[in-house]
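Before surveying the methods themselves, let us examine one representative protein, written as a sequence plus integers encoding its fold.
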Amino acid sequence: MKMINNTSMLLYDNKHQNQIKHSVELDMSIGTKDRLKSLIVDKALLVDDESNFQLASGDKSNYFFDMKLVSMDPEGSELIAEEIFKLIQNENIDFIGGLESGAIPIASVVANYSSRYRKPIPAFFVRKTPKKRGTNKIIEGNLSNNSRVVLVDDVMTKGESVLIAVERVRELNCHVEKVITIVDRMAGAKENLKKHGIELVALFKKTDFDL
């Protein structure tokens, strides 16, 4: 394999479900989406034949995306922001947000990224339960009634968690038609959201990782 520059990255061999670390020189011309995928494989994807990973849906799985290791990484967050902003920059979106805690770093970094292009999209997040002090808010950050909103999340399984955010946002007469996730586990979320008039857009599907 040709060595380019002096930056190494680790690749995960999913086919054998073993963490095989290769010292590979990073081609700096690699696209942002491909680089983001490499970071997810390197930092976030865990595979265990014993199916020991408990998911938010209650199901167990032999693989798990610990996505905050990417969404809260300096490079990873920048790549996520760029890819999501590409999807919404030409749409009439007033606010971006989602349910705590997976959506918080994503919405925040996209809001920051949007300001560079003179199309600022303020961010918010929805609490699972109201804060028990101060303002007792269940929605924190920037969100106004009758707004057009896009929701985000890090990993989507059945879509049950994000529907909590959908319900809270729609209580303010906000218009939600799209949810963007970094990874779709392809376990029913797309179909469940469609029942509520919402399109699920995924940067990656589980099949992109040979799962």
Summary: Helices lie at 32-44, 68-71, 74-88, 103-115, 160-170, 189-194. The longest helix spans residues 74-88.
